[in-house]
Amino acid sequence: MRLAYYLLPIILFSFSNLFAQQSAFPVTLSNPMDFDTIIETEPNFIWQTNITALQTDPRYSQRYVLCELQENQLKGDAIAVNTPILVLDDYQNTMHSYSSSATPLEEGHTYVWQVSILFNSLIVDQSEPYQFTILKPKDPLPNFYPVAFKNDGQMLSIVNEKIGLLTDETGNLNLKVNISTGGKIVKSVYLNELLNGEEKADQVSEYKGTKRFYILNLKDLDLEKGVYKVSWNLKTKRQYTFNFTIS
Fold first, then answer.
1. 169-186 pLDDT, tens per residue?
2. Contact 147, 240 (CB under 8 A)
3. Which ranges constitute the DSSP H helices of 24-148?
4. Strand 162-167 relative to strand 212-217, pairing
């Protein structure tokens, strides 16, 4: 009896200590967000947790799991029973760029991902499972050219009367562009932002912490044949310039 009297506080302390350790490692997924529709087949996965503590205490480890979601299947069931497309054990980062050498992710398919924290190989905390779908466009999307300020003046191709741009520029961006030819501005229009597979028209793009995709839609602009220059003042003292040709 005396031994049990002394062991009980120790056991209670051990469990309370474990739960205290558990609460120190919340995991929050941030990209792709839950129910996102994205256009990238090799996306960047980003999440937040106490990565410093994970890297300094060998008893802890981190596991990333990605699997496909079947029709009418719950996210948690997919993680529990589906064969994973990718598993990263003992992962020491809070970002993973999907590799072109991994199993290809397909347009029109929906996927689920989750990150777990393990203590001596036992799960003590984990994120909510998030699902995302890769867009299968009805019409061909344009090529998306990175906004590279050192390459001002480059000539971009037109697909389906559209020109695509992408940037990881932070902060809110002005979406107004000037289209000129022969040194004269002929049109001032706004870029459309591609969000969840849909083009959204607005004057300002709000920063959401991920890459951003924009489309210059040339339809209905009634531009004549010739070479055109586009100037985009994203921010004060941040101007991007490119060219295109209508033949």
1. 889 999 999 999 999 999
2. yes
3. 51-56, 75-81
4. antiparallel
Picking from 158, 143, 138, the residue whose alpha carbon sits closest to that of residue 198 is 138
Tell me the H-state helices in 45-138. Answer: 51-56, 75-81
Question: How far apart (Å, rounded) are the C-alpha atoms in residues 209 and 144?
Answer: 18
Q: How far apart are CA 185 and CA 181, in angstroms?
A: 7
Mean pLDDT of the chain: 87
pLDDT band at 33 (very low <50, low <70, confident <90, very high): very high
Measured CA to CA, the distance from residue 219 to residue 68 in angstroms comes to 37
Strands 130-134 and 36-38: parallel
Joined tokens for residue 137: 């466009």
**pTM for the full model?**
0.61
Enter the tokens of residue 106. 């397909």
- As given in the structure block, the two tokens for residue 209 are 């912490």
Residue 2: phi and psi, rounded to 5, are -65, -40
d(CA 131, CA 56): 31
Candidates 145, 158, 184, 160; CA nearest to 244 is 158
Q: In sequence order, which ranges of 125-179 are alpha helices (DSSP H)? A: none
- Hey, which residues does 177 pair with through a beta bridge? 189, 232
Q: Which pair of tokens denotes residue 168?
A: 């990881």
